[in-house]
């Protein structure tokens, strides 16, 4: 064990970077055994529905999953995003459950069983940093192995869902000015709904899109739309021109037979000024001072419906402490088992009820509320929710 707290971390992080993609967990075990006398190390990854945490073991089958929410210590660490210490039967030992999160994207939990004397507050901070390093290497390793993607699966993804998940930027992102959380259902059979975001030093761009149709047809349409929007965004043009070029790309391929509803938002990180283009059905809600209201935008044509559509930008303002929720039509237009529409009232009530939850938990709670309203996890339409908690840039008005 190192006599100097934290001095082992640099060497451990270098060893993680040098580990082969499939050897990341075995390397982590060896490192923690060497430096902190850890008895065992388990990596649990959140499944696609964020319902359970699944251990990375021998594939294609993983070990017994634990709930991602509730009283299980690993679930508490994941949902609350704090280390949780669990007393165990073996005398003189403790298990520390550590969130594995990269820039706000929650991947899972690293559970470390080690001597109780090693689990003081300074060591827990070091272990938290180590878990974050594991998360960074996980994301890099996923480019070269299917191991961790397979471990996340409770069952097989549909082909359309496989396409959609590969297209997503993640399910969360955080920096000084804001925190993002997002959720998709049905997670294992998603078709046309998608969200995307990108940040620079000064701006954040978010898009939520809903391609028409079902299954692979919808996934192909959404893939074209998102790729066209990214291509336009990366060329440095205005938000309205991004919408226009994506509109041309979709119309050029489908001739108006298929189209994509989308909401485009661009945030100025210094001022909270928002440029918005509403090209279809996703709806925008704001929670401010405990009051939920829908932000009415100028409805414009979905992308690809007609040839050479012109799009206009609107300007909005967001204040520190505000929460924005973007919901696709599969959320606000969903029906219950007896045919009643989920609608704006139920959605506003659900948003208000989650006002003290994190952005990640709020996004998931909105979709969970929809599932309860519908009476089944087998939603007839895709549902996408993005939640943004805005803090603003310190030192700016």
TrEMBL record:
Keywords: Hydrolase
SMART domains for the chain: PP2C_SIG
Domain PPM-type phosphatase residues, every copy: 175-390
Membrane-crossing segments per the record: none
Keyword Hydrolase: yes
Protein name as annotated: PP2C family protein-serine/threonine phosphatase
Pfam families cross-referenced by the UniProt entry: SpoIIE
Gene3D superfamilies: PPM-type phosphatase domain
